[in-house]
């Protein structure tokens, strides 16, 4: 019995401490967001905070869509960058260059300047090789997406129903606006 009294008194002390989190939604307009200095003091400032969260959730979805679009662009650029020398192909440009009488002549074909390479369009199996011009922007975009996502998560963790609905509403509006850019076609082009 004595141990039971001790655990119940410990439980009541811990539940009344300011650091405990209530796991039920609340509808107060003075819930701090991200810091104690950002505590709405009126209904107008609470509405402004909710509008901020809606916009932040929309920006999050837009960044995710932008990253998906850039991933497709980076893949297409990589696939178009792959060149293979055509063995045994004797080009007209090579013939003209080897002719001493045609040193100043130039060859323009319907395909542009003739080269002894052929662009190979093929789906790669495995990761694209590391490139600073691709991987740095990819990492920075991911950093922004993760940072905003964690801020939205912290807003939801306040258990304020207004903040929660604002994050959901912003995610819905963002997906409605740019969700089609996030989808990838895994069955070919």
UniProtKB/TrEMBL annotation:
This is Copper transport protein. Pfam families: Ctr. The keyword Transmembrane applies. GO terms for cellular component: plasma membrane. GO terms for molecular function: copper ion transmembrane transporter activity. The chain crosses the membrane at residues 46-66, 139-155. PANTHER family: HIGH-AFFINITY COPPER TRANSPORTER CTRA2, SOLUTE CARRIER FAMILY 31 COPPER TRANSPORTERS. Signal peptide: none annotated. Residues 1-20 are annotated as: Disordered. It comes from the Eukaryota.
């Amino acid at each position: 019995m004595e141990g039971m009294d001790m655990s119940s008194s410990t439980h009541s002390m811990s539940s009344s401490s300011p650091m405990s989190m209530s796991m039920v939604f609340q509808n107060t307009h003075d819930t701090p967001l991200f810091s104690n200095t950002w505590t709405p003091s009126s209904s107008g400032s609470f509405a402004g905070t909710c509008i901020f969260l809606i916009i932040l959730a929309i920006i999050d979805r837009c960044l995710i869509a932008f990253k998906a679009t850039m991933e497709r662009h980076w893949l297409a650029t990589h696939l178009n960058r792959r060149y293979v020398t055509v063995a045994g192909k004797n080009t007209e440009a090579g013939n003209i260059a080897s002719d001493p009488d045609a040193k100043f002549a130039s060859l323009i074909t319907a395909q542009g300047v003739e080269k002894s390479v052929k662009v190979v369009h093929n789906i790669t199996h495995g990761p694209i090789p590391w490139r600073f011009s691709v991987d740095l922007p990819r990492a920075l975009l991911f950093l922004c997406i993760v940072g905003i996502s964690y801020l939205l998560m912290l807003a939801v963790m306040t258990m304020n129903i207004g903040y929660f609905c604002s994050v959901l509403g912003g995610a819905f509006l963002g997906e409605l606006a740019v969700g089609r850019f996030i989808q990838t076609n895994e069955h070919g082009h």
